[in-house]
Amino acid sequence: MALNELEALNRALFLAIDATPSTPALGIAVAAFVANGLIWSIPLLLIGLWLSADTHRRETALRGCAVALVALGANQLIGLAWSHPRPFMIGLGHTFLAHAPDSSFPSDHATVFAALCVTLFAQRMTRLGLATFASGLAVAWARIFLGVHFPLDMIGAAGVAVAVHIALTPAWRHAGPRLTQWAVAIHRRVFAAPIRLGWLRP
Which domains does the chain have, with CATH numbers? Predict the structure, then answer.
């Protein structure tokens, strides 16, 4: 498929999902909460994994952070190399969410969800992976629905997250366990008092 045809499909899919002035206000409000609010489930998930005191879960949290951060860095480089306008920047559709006029591709929100999702599945945490996948899909839909992203921005985000996870896997197998031990040692030193009181697990 030629680039022009792909962009035409991208725009057509966007217009099929994008809300309109006739969309009920409640629908817009729910979508806005999903678009901006569900991202906070990611740090809560990571904190929960870490506070479980399970070595495998702690390593998964650190690995997920690493994949997400590197993937977000890759997004910045992609945006610098190829700046793709957001729908409202070219007067396409309707926008119901304030956003800076920067490059739309790939979506940072979707990248974070995809990075955690692929890490959870790779670490065989299937239930958490499925929950993260469902939340990520909801956020991706909401941000298209509200007019700040195209569908291909979300597909691109997933591709970046998967590529970064694959690229980091050899290094993580070598350094991941030691990094986890180091992080646990810092945790035990910083939170020594709450740990002694039984408020936190070591």
Answer: 27-172 (1.20.144.10)
